[in-house]
Amino acid sequence: MSPADGVDSIAAGVRSGSRSAAAVLEEHLGRIAEREAEVHAFTLVTDSAARERAAVLDERVAAGEDPGPLAGVPVALKDNLCTRGVPTTCSSRMLEGWRPPYDATVVARLHDAGAVVVGKTNLDEFAMGSSTENSAFGPTRNPHDTSRVPGGSSGGSAAAVAAGFAAASLGSDTGGSIRQPAALCGVVGVKPTYGAVSRLGLVAFASSLDQIGPFTTSVADAATVLTVIAGPDPSDSTSIPEPFPDLRPSLERGVAGLRIGRISDLPAGADPDVAARVDAAFDALAAAGATIVDVEIPAFGYGLTAYYLIAPAEASSNLARYDGVRFGLRVDAPDTDAMYMATRAEGFGAEVKRRIMLGTYALSAGYYDAYYGKALKVRRRIAADFAAAYGRVDALITPASPSVAFAFGDKTSDPFAMYLCDTYTIPSNLTGDPAMSVPFGTGADGLPVGVQVLAPALGEPTMFAVAAELERSVGVGDG
Amino acid sequence: MSDRITRPAVEKVARLARLSLTEDEIVIATRELGDMLDHFADIDALDLDDVEPMTQPVPLVNVMRDDVEAPTLDRDEVLAAAPVATDGQFRVPPIIGLDA
Amino acid sequence: MGERWMHEGFEMVVGLEVHVELATTTKLFSGSPNRFGDEPNTNIDPVTLGLPGALPVLNRHAVELAIRIGLALDCTVQACTFARKNYFYPDMPKAYQISQYDRPLNADGRLALPDGTVVGVERAHLEEDTGKSTHLGGSGRIHGSEGSLIDFNRAGVPLVEIVSRPDITSPEQARMYVSELRSILVAIGASDARMEEGSMRVDANVSVRRPGEPLGTRCEIKNVNSVRSLGRAIDYEARRQVALIAGGESVRQETRHWDENDGRTHTLRSKEDADDYRYFPEPDLVPVHPDAAWIESIRSALPMLPAARRSRLADACGQDPDSEAVTTVVERGQDEYVLAVSAAGGSAERALVHVKEAFAEAGAAPTLPAARLAELTAMELAGALTATQAKTVLAEMVAAGDGDPAAIAAARGFEAMDTSALDALVDGAIAADPDAWAKFCAGDPKAVGALVGRVMKESRGQADGRAVTAALHARRG
Ligand SMILES: [Mg+2]
Ligand SMILES: [Zn+2]
User: Fold this and answer.
1) Is the ipTM of this complex over 0.85?
2) 10 Å Cβ neighbour count for A205?
């Protein structure tokens, strides 16, 4: 992608009238026409609605109005974000054809900022997966190498931005579902502080872990989109009431004087090519004036277990509403119980069933304390370890994914092998702290590597300062 | 293969979750769940007696709204999306199940 | 202590779970109207229907009403959290009910019955109501039904579930508990608590045991739709359990359904396939920590509770707090008026009787100025009017909404007869019924009635019954 396709430059052009939203849209629809059949980033391309929308925006600009910071910016939405009257499937047979009667808060905010929605993107069914292979509508392919996965669960959103189908997209991150695909697709992906972005209209996977965030080609663009979607929402009881911090100053701040933590007891598992890029990141930050400090986070490694008990437990409850009574799929049966069993057996894919079973078991009488209850205590322990570390450092650096993009089928035979993809991303969801993946060069087979920047709750300004520095040091575009 | 979870336990869980599983699925689920629980045994080593469970990341309290009416959904739009609707209501087959 | 229930050497142990719908404008977690009787599925929104992506936001007024209930029941109002109770049922949109589990809003309270019995209240927690299903065919019952229709207007309506301790030992006490609870809920404006409309629903946990023995196996009785059937259902169920035990069988823990038609309870489901609700903390809602200031402001705004009002009225009228007149008048909220009459110089005792009879229509607030009724009762006490005459005069005043009792009495030619006329009538009565007189002199209290009756008849109601009785006693010496 050329920088001209970035969020800020498009918005600037459209607001100034030097570019038309319609022309910008056609460039993106052109690339979709060219490569979507191969990449399959979308569950639905809303081209005609997008064209009408772009025309309206151009008229408003002509009339001297300012459509806002995302004026004419083509955006793609993960298909677990509710869009009024537009199918929202979660890439599941269960919701095929369902049209929500309302918009997610983030969708409304993008619209109010002048964005143009080009489509809904593919995901692992109900956001459960790390490769987008669990989509009921077929996998998304990595634009950098279509024999490989884009990561997941927000694989469609990551691929859409990497392929230039949209200047920005939204995903949801429950255990790394934004950061891991961002890393594998070579784009920027942000998981904001829990509560910074309203979850209203995000189809819930694990409510205490889910957070919506942006994919973009640059750190500055990510800041722009995040600033638009973040901020208090009275319709989400877990929304942070304070205004979201201004990220603009962070972008040029640099890292001079910042203490960047290297987790000395980080769980092993990162491939050498990825580990090498992370080391290079520490060197770049040190060269830019940051102090690298070794810290320990002993409970880090228990995150996987805590997460794979807590997330399925919440999911088993959140997905119980798919019962064939009020919306979505129903398989007819002689009585309600048979209807539930048949509908859910047919509507859900293997991974979703696996997690519902696991979560139901973890909550069931006699096992609650041993599994779910204990996982909540481990979660507290992990949060305490991170809090202690942040007493000594301003941010942490780790790999976003243990490996570069892997081939289709590589990890589908062993569920746990797939779960290991989330080793480095999961802890931020458990603690609620922000984390983002920044493209930082390439690894094996010239595939993108993402470096993860982690910061304490509402530490986005620091996180973006570090991310921007990494981006500068590697050079925009060659990520 | 793990013995952490038995087939009857798997069948009970499937019943609780209202998932009808085929014979194969039950066998596979019993193995997979068992293997996963083996992996998850790593936390058994931790002493967590005096650790408070953490249910939410952000410690907010007393988030409440005023008791004022908000717009409701259009019944026809909602029922149009229902699998089966009759006389302005959602229709289901004869009800079997616990009446709580 | 009411009628003590005993059957073949067994006593009953009863605990009640009462669900009341709160009188809010909107639902517990969304802005849809909380309104009874609207067109099906018109009070719905994404939260009510449990649509994907919907999120609950707690209604502050519902919490306030729940705290009123807690305070009125002498509970500890405490920091609390919400939990999900997971189960599948077509009228439960999300397949989980947002309720409270290990940390309820109100805990450890008590309710004193008019007869002095104190029933413990274990907890009074907030939760959401379910939708309503109508069963097609099969005579409107689940069994043999051809399917059901679901209306979600009621789904999400705020409920408080009030769980009593098993301190109730007779059907009479159970009825008293529910009636007293009802008048409290109405008095504090928390709920209209109508069992017929379902805004108050009562489930009873019934078990039996020989006195002194540990608690027996309990059955939960559902579908009790009136205070009267509550008593019948509990009595039937306890006898059923006694019969089982006497017959050498054992009681099975189960949920049973009260059938108004055959007056029996029937197995609904056995607890053997024990429901596993998988309660866990609701991640979409944050804890509620009611601060002392809020609790105090709610407490100070609470009206006087029925029990206190009954004893206040009883004192004023020189009656028993649980006398029928006192309980009825307080129930109707007419006690303030009676006190106003006595404050205006009238007789509280007579006013109580008149109000109870003259303003009988439920909820009727007396229209007559208290001062007028005060004048009337004063005339009665002075003997200027007989009870019968007073009634007639009052009826006229009530019809007119006002009026001077003295004028009305005069216009109707009511005046107390002078003693000589009364003496003559008394002589006549004694002469006409000598053996009644003999019995009366012999000290038979019943005999006086016959004599008084005669005098009243002769005087065509003009004589004052109390004056006649006095004259007879004077005559006997
Ligand atoms: Mg109950
Ligand atoms: Zn309840």
Assistant:
1) yes
2) 26
